[in-house]
Design goal:
The complex is a heterodimer of chains A (325) and B (282). By secondary structure, chain A is mostly helical. Helix content of chain A is 74%, strand content 0%. Chain A is globular. Chain A starts with a helix and ends with a helix. In chain B, α2 packs across α12 (242-279), α4 packs antiparallel against α5 (104-119) and α11 crosses α12. The chains are: A mainly alpha (325), B mainly alpha (282). Chains A and B meet through α1, α6, α7, α11 and α12 of A and α5, α6, α10, α11 and α12 of B.
């Protein structure tokens, strides 16, 4: 297991390096130099901001030197100061937002797993039945529905028409005066729609994936053996087949992290949730370049860590990976 | 190829998808003929009126006809979809072909690059680039294309890995044909089947991305109508004008669904060949 972990960590180094290279390339799209023909036409970037970009990123020096300076600051997690009025360090601004985004994504991952697994297994076991067809239609719609539109529709239905759920923020105005259980209830009412919306797309994808895994596993010889031993259908499906069908799901969950984190921009903006996505959106709108760069790099590193965790989990549940081929 | 077409035609879902796609293209091309009103005609007496016989999808916050704006919006969605996917297919084919054909350090470099691009939450990368550039329809197309070629590259590489060992490639090589010609004329045409499928599904993804960006105000800029920016108006008027939210969203849903159904249908039709491709290590 330890060598597995070590191998994975070594594998991460070139990726981290690459992330910084690509992020650095993005900076070079900045107005000013070297690609800035239309800066004078861009009223959102003041002359002062342009001058600051030039200073922070040393845009007048040779490119390798610029990159090296930037990399040195990244290495000590110095992302610079925000361009906004408060001028706080970018790192602080991002760190205080991460817990909310992480919590939301973890909750929606749990929801995805809890719903998609039984859905996929059930429609695989009952292939070609009415249930299977209905869930297939659901899956196609789940793939096609724009997240932000679903969010709007739910807001109209539950927030405006029925008035059951609050449509923005993560807590009520009187949150601090509530008792502990009431606080939890308050949070869950605020988070119900955002978590559901962010899980919806993944739900469709994963249940589809679960279904095809299950169909593949059920056709294997050891399942036939289990049936031939006279095991009940439940034991065959849930004790023997499900375990192997669940394995690749771990990897898929890891791979879906970028989409989840990226999607947080949309639903955090719509539901006014003070997470990393909303911060990023605001920084893009106000052209707060240090903040944009900070979120970009940290988002990519979070994804990398997510993939590493998924990889390690895979190693934990599947001994074949752990021992190496 | 012909049997594949027949298979698609026999699959009712794929057929429905292709008919819808055809209709959408027709609507986009014939927009000036089909739109009942000028999409940018402002009428202060018609601000936010509910759907009626004159304005079947109602009017927006400036009194413009929503149906006409949506018909013109189809042009934006489809052109962004096609151009963005075109860019991503070209990049993906180049990276995948070089990696698969040459192997060795070229392959290692190209695939690590692909892995790195996959680390970035796509939406973050797109937004970051947009922050540094001006949001415009051309920039949107380029940015979506440049951030979504990784799947195609992996598919093409896998196909190349298995195809380059085949006899016809050996035959071509023994005739002294150069690498460039072998890649472009002999291997690539045989590697395209899974790319077509992924391109069609990619159009669906690009339409979703464009509408999301426009919804956030970072995509196609008003007054140019796009389904995404009509929805922004829908959000601003969510408590009084449901029609601004419902119809453009349905249009996006329908479009994406149609491309997905068509893509899946073609995938099923090509399936035996795809399985060969999947066997290769990626």
């Amino acid at each position: 297991m330890l060598t597995h972990l070590a191998r994975r960590l070594v594998f991460m180094i070139p990726l981290l390096f690459g992330i910084t290279l690509i992020s650095f390339a993005v900076i070079h799209l900045a107005p000013g130099e070297p690609v800035g023909l239309d800066t004078s036409l861009n009223p959102k970037v003041s002359a002062e901001a342009r001058e600051r970009i030039r200073q922070i990123y040393h845009l007048d020096e040779p490119v390798p030197v610029q990159y090296w300076r930037w990399l040195k600051r990244l290495a000590v997690l110095d992302f610079g100061e925000s361009f906004s009025a408060d001028r706080r360090p970018v790192l602080d601004k991002i760190l205080e937002r991460i817990p909310i985004t992480l919590a939301l994504n973890v909750l929606s991952l749990i929801l995805i797993l809890a719903v998609a697994t039984p859905l996929g297994v059930y429609s695989a076991v009952r292939q070609h039945t009415l249930f299977d067809r209905v869930s297939t239609v659901f899956v196609f719609i789940g793939f096609a529905i724009p997240t932000f539109w679903l969010a709007l529709l739910l807001m109209i239905l539950f927030g405006v028409e029925l008035g059951w759920l609050p449509i923005s923020g993560i807590r009520s105005l009187d949150h601090n005066s509530l008792s502990a259980p009431a606080k939890i209830w308050d949070y869950s009412r605020h988070l119900a729609m955002p978590v559901f919306v962010s899980a919806f797309g993944g739900l469709a994808g994963l249940s589809r994936y679960m279904r095809s895994n299950m169909l593949e596993v059920v056709r294997q010889d050891y399942i036939t053996t289990a049936r031939a031993k006279g095991l009940t259908e439940e034991a065959v499906i849930y004790r023997h087949a499900l375990r192997n069908a669940l394995l690749p799901v771990v990897t898929i969950l890891g791979l879906s992290i970028p989409a989840l984190i990226g999607g947080s921009v949309i639903f955090e903006t719509i539901y006014a949730i003070p997470g990393m996505g909303q911060l990023f959106y605001q920084s893009v709108l106000s052209r707060d370049y240090p903040l944009v760069m900070g979120v970009l790099v940290i988002g990519a590193v979070l994804t990398l860590i997510g993939n590493l965790v998924a990889d390690l989990c895979y190693g934990l549940v599947d001994p074949r990976i752990r021992t190496g081929r | 190829m012909m049997t594949a077409f027949r298979d698609v035609a026999r699959n009712p879902l794929a057929l429905a998808g292709s008919v819808t796609v055809g209709l959408l293209v027709l609507v986009a091309v014939l927009a000036p003929l089909l739109a009942p009103y000028d999409p940018s005609a402002i009428d202060a007496s018609l601000i936010l009126t509910a759907p009626s016989e004159e304005h079947v999808f109602g009017t927006d916050e400036l009194g413009r006809d929503v149906a006409s704006r949506m018909i013109y919006g189809a042009r934006i969605s489809l052109s962004v979809g096609f151009v963005a996917v075109g860019i991503s297919v070209i990049i993906g084919c180049i990276v995948g072909a070089l990696a698969g054909y040459y192997g060795g350090w070229v392959d290692a470099l190209a695939m690590r690059f692909t892995d790195i691009m996959l680390c970035f939450p796509t939406f973050f990368l797109i937004l970051a680039v947009i922050a540094f550039l001006q949001p415009s329809i051309w920039n949107i197309m380029i940015v979506i294309g440049v951030t979504s070629w990784m799947g195609v590259a992996r598919l093409v590489r896998a196909e190349f890995l298995s195809l380059k060992e085949r006899e016809f490639v050996l035959a071509a090589r023994s005739q002294g044909i150069g690498d460039g010609r072998i890649i472009l004329r002999h291997i690539l045409p045989n590697a395209m089947a899974p790319v077509y499928v992924s391109a069609i599904l990619g159009v669906a993804g690009a339409v979703l991305l464009e509408s999301g960006l426009s919804f956030l105000g970072l995509g196609v800029q008003p007054p140019t109508p796009s389904w995404g920016n009509i929805l922004t108006a829908g959000k601003d008027n969510i408590e009084i004008a449901w029609w601004l939210s419902v119809f453009p969203g349905l249009a996006i849903l329908l479009t994406v669904l149609a491309y997905n159904l068509l893509g899946e249908g073609i995938r099923d039709a090509f399936d035996p060949r795809l399985r060969v491709g999947r066997g290769a290590k990626s």
